[in-house]
Amino acid sequence: MADLLPDTRRALRHRLAAGQSRGRTPSVVAAVVRDGGPVWAEGWGTVDGGVPDGDVQYRIGSITKTFTAILVLRLRDEGLLDLGDVLDAHLPGTAAGDATIGALLAHTAGLAAEPPGPWWERTPGALRPELTDVLPATPFVSAPGRRFHYSNPGYALLGALVEKLRGASWAEVLRREVLEPLGMRRTGLDPVAPHAAGWAVHPWADVLLPEPAQDLGVMAPAGALWSTASDLARLAAFLLDGDDRVLRRDTVEEMCEPRTPEYGLGVQILRAPDGRVLTGHTGSLPGFLAMLAIDPEERLGAVVFGNATTGLDVGAVTADLIRIVAEREPHVPEPWRPLPSIDPELLALAGPWYWGPSPYLLSPAADGFLELSALHGGGTRATRLRPDPDGGWTGRSGYFAGERLRVERDASGAVTHLDVGTFVFTRRPYDPGAPIPGGVDRDGWRV
């Protein structure tokens, strides 16, 4: 584990201890990740008479949804489904068959927030033995796509989708395709010692009540996992960089792009009090609170667990751990290095381009992508472009996500302009030699 400065470590310890004390939580444990690995982990309070460390399991609640989303996106990347497919195309017979897979991932399908019956997080999954038991008689509470509406049953359906297409249980597919490749050996459906017990803390007295740890049955893909700070630090590193054994980096970036102000694909968009935009997920089950968040710009991530139903402000603690490191030890950029190779035709495209009068820069990136970034004068069309097998490029972020870049040439083969979703980019502002929509005034620029 790389070292942080002693003053930084002390500040992290203080914030964690203050969170445990103010939140009246029996124990907390946290970790910070930077540049692909853990740089700090510590616990406060007690579990079985000792201070917990990064190997002690806690229940992580809805952080489980991030794992389920990873499995669905693996299926998409393999060509077994499309995010625009309706659920019925792959998992027929549910009352939510008209919902698209992408909408289920982003919580925009309009499904009910909870399954019918008694509170599912505190009752046995045996009360809901079949997939049909997780949806109420009227499963949709709003029109699909109308708004963000968090749905736990939606992720139960996605877990069942994984099982149908893989021909194995969700837990087995998760172990084989995600947990083992990432080295997350202390994450699973069942607790394995050492693990924390879940508690409720009386609101007006410092006394505890045990919370039941239920087997959630078919609702497991929505929130059943146990994990450790060390294991979720690996997940944070994965969300920062991807891992080709699990998901390509561009797919992980797609997960983290906002589909609504609140959510991407299996990850929340979290706005810290200092204005920092974080990506990750919160989690809770009776007796447990958890949060994972990353700050891609600072190359930082943090994980916080506590074993109480309420009290610990995991959001504030997690954001503060990231802030403390970012302010005290700002990210040091990687050394600049030249590209190992480049196609001469691609090199010829590098440099300034103009959408009307707005200047942009097109740059080949080290990972094989193209970066289209706005220069001075403003611009809102910046994007990363992924190379396609046919030699073209497709936008992966921002306004041009999903749009194709075409390199247009004249009869001699010389490049005249770029076309990205009908937006014409030229080598000169409003180049009269390019097909500018609406034309260019023949008298040109004037004073």
UniProtKB/TrEMBL annotation:
InterPro entries: AmpC-like, Beta-lactam-related, Beta-lactam/transpept-like, DUF7586
Domain (DUF7586): residue spans on this chain: 343-427
Highest taxon listed in the record's lineage: Bacteria
Beta-lactamase-related domain segment(s): 15-326
Pfam families according to UniProt: Beta-lactamase (PF00144), DUF7586 (PF24491)
Ranges annotated as spanning the membrane: none
UniProt protein name: CubicO group peptidase (Beta-lactamase class C family)
Taxonomic classification: Bacteria, Bacillati, Actinomycetota, Actinomycetes, Micromonosporales
